Request: fold
Amino acid sequence: MHLSEITSSGFFFLAPWLVFAPLAGLLINMIFANRFKFSENLIGGIASAASGVAFIVSILLTYSLSLQHGEAARWRLAEWFSIGSLSLDWTFRMDTLSTTMMLVVSGVGTLIHIYAIGYMREDVRFKHEEGRFARFFIFLNLFLASMLVLVSGDSYLMLFVGWEGVGFCSFLLIGFWFEMDTLGRSSWANSNAAKKAFIANRVGDFGFLIASFLIFWNLGQSLQFDQVFEAAKNAPPGVIVAITLFLLLGVAGKSAQIPLYIWLPDAMAGPTPVSALMHAATMVTAGVYLVTRSAPFYNLVPDAQYIVAMVGAITALFAATIAVGQYDIKKVLAYSTISQLGFMVAAVGMGAYVAGFFHLIAHAFFKALLFLSAGSIILGIERGHHHAEHAEHADKSKSKKGKKEEHGHAEHGEEAFDPGDMRNMGGMRKTMPVTFWMYLIGALALSGIFPFAGFWSKDEILLDAKLHYPAAYWLLTIAAFFTAFYMGRQIWMVFFGEARTAPAKHAQESPKVMTLPLVALAILSVGGGALNFPFEGFHNLGHWLEHTLGEVESMPLNLQVAGVSTLLALIAIGISWLIYGRKPLQNGEPDPLKKALGFIYTGMENKWFVDEGYAALVIKPFDKLSQFLADVVDWRFWHDFVHERLIAGTYNWISAIALDKYSDKQGIDAFANGLATVSQRLSAGMRKIQNGFVRSYALSILLGVVLILSYLIFK
Amino acid sequence: MTSDLIVFIVLALIAIASALGMAFSQNTVYAALYLVLNFIVVAVFYLLLGAPFIAMAQITVYAGAIMVLFVFVIMLLGVQGLPPSQTLPWQKPLAVLLAVVLAVQSIYLLLARAPLAQTLVDPDASINTTNNLQQMALTLFSDYLLPFEITSILLLVAMVGAIVLSKHDKKAGTSHDAA
Amino acid sequence: MTPLNYYIALSAILFSIGVLGVLVRRNPLIIFMSIELMLNAANLAFVAFGRSFEIANGKPFFSGQIFVFFVIAVAAAEVAVGLALIVEIFKTKNTVNIDDVNSLKG
Reply:
């Protein structure tokens, strides 16, 4: 791993535009969009173009990197700050690892930007907030800029800047509809979800910070990657273990692993493109990137690797079981994301960085596809809902109609209709054919069916696990089984059978601006496996990343592992057909799995009561403690007793008796008045010199000059 | 006494005489013309000191442009002398005294304390060639590029300042009309 | 072959005459011209001193002359603003006697 400090060749000088292009887009939209009444297409076009520029820059950087055979390059933009001997620069780091992330982030990001033009146009209308259209794209571009800072940073500090930036954007975008809940009713549910995500991430960030401090003080007072990795070779192993475990806490926060995953399902409160971009494809993979980036640390301490791998594997299985019991189409995908992130974390924990990264890329494709399709379905049902409402109103008394329309979507009917609930869907295959096919491709890729991208990447992880960590292998294999099952369940419930509600019946297909990105992602989901076929001569990604990660073990396809996982997936899909496909769910009927599994299903449905557990174990004691501290300790003891009685009382007594009478009036006042009198008299004398004639002022200057010269002569 | 020295002394006398003439002539136009003469003499000194570029700049910018500006303003304001002053009666003797002291002191300081003052100046010395100008331009546009650019900004500021000062204040006029 | 100190002495004398002009005259235009004379005297000293450092670090040394160049530029700027000020004072006070401009006093 050699670094060319000053790179004159190639397109590396373009590196800053990775960040500046999205920033420019957001500035244009922020300053001009609402002032000059930009059309929605223009706003979205500017944002998408900004993202597209970042993508083109990523391609050029990758190309330049391939020209010099993957030898990492750095581009120093500016000095950030320097304190004493510590000097930190804003340096862009282009190695095979970071450019791969850049390509994924900006490429998928651009597609999602385009999709969002269509999605937000309708979403803001359903919620009667057309003015927020530009804001959404500003946030989206800000996110992209932060994410690219994260992946292009050359030190843990720059990585942390991006890390916090994306966390903040996540907060902004989850709480985009901050004054309503996911159904559009007036409540603080969405902003609470945003806060939850922010706080859970903060716990993780705490770990990251501690790890950074440990790195700084123990590894040569630097945060630059190459320097600390070099220093780590001679560091005591205990320090490295501590660093890696604190980093793992950061990873658990950002990449939604046990025990901090709880924020990700709630993050679905954000608009669907956000869920796709940040909470599936890019931001949450930052943790995986962090572990891969810190590979030199993890390689030194196998124990820490084992912990990371097990955390990932357990998360993968745990989240997969919860996904089975969810009804909300996006919640299923959210738990699926946690589960798949578990796969990736397990892989990078095992040291199978290429496999983890391969899965990261493939997952970015098909999970973005799934989320965007889910968004398309939800909007399709919203359209159907409005269609049905209009028909209903037309039948009913026409005088009421106009009045009721003004109240907006939120107040329609007694109970709000949930367009994301799979129990309200059914038979969508016929109403939304394009979305159906795209969703099917995504689901097959996620389930790991040959020859979709997920098959190759998942099998590579499983193979690595089987060779090194048998326990993790079994956990992950079972998780893969559940994955196929819940995706099958979802496909049967959403697309097959008959429509269970009127909106689902009247659902309409989405416009081209939304379906075309879906098609692009679907093509990537089908062909993404080609990045790293497990055959001799095809380990492209592996060889590419080798330049950054060092020697990588590239393994041929293991038919046993692939066979077992594919067979399990097919069995799972078969079971899901038996339960949900053969006899479609009727409206109002409970989930058939509930009867079969009983309390286990109740557990899945309620997310194993983890949120309640957190509430009882952490939040309630915390509230109680803070109440106690505020009421008893702070107010009664500290304020009433110490401050009011002891300090203020004593002070008042002393000042009234002793100071006011003697020292103040007769001492200080007299002195101050005397000073004033003296300066008054002095100034009256001085005023005569200030006569207003410029010539005499000049004369005094000359006098001064002559005196100074005299001093110089006679000294 | 070499011929160089004779030239120097004659020119120095003209310079001092024209300076005194400028400072004490009652007619402002005469004062300006004395100053022009002084500038031209100093320009000749520059030539003797091997600085042809500065000499030309002195004549075109100082004796030419700046003095034309002076004469222009003099014509604008009128040339009549001022009545004898009643104010500051002790200003004049004190000023003369201090100026003489200053001259003595500075000559003493510069001659007695400056180690280089004994050097001889040869008007035919090596750098007094065409190469001189080229070298100076190179120095000016490399080592002194930033001051040079700042000077251009300063000139712009001065131009804007002069325009602002001499512009009629239209707002005040309209408010006056309204009142 | 003129000794350098002759030039220095001449520069000091011209400077003192300039100082005298500033202090004695009441016509702001002449005061201004005296200031120009002082600048000129300083320039002469610059060029004269620069002459004694003909070569520094192996190449011709021009800092003295370049300084003079800057002084001339600054003087031009100063004259532009200064004369505009004088014209403005004349317009408001209708006099060019500097002693009449004495309203700023204690």
Residues 253 and 260 of chain A are 5 Å apart (CA to CA). Strands of chain A lie at 73-83, 86-94.
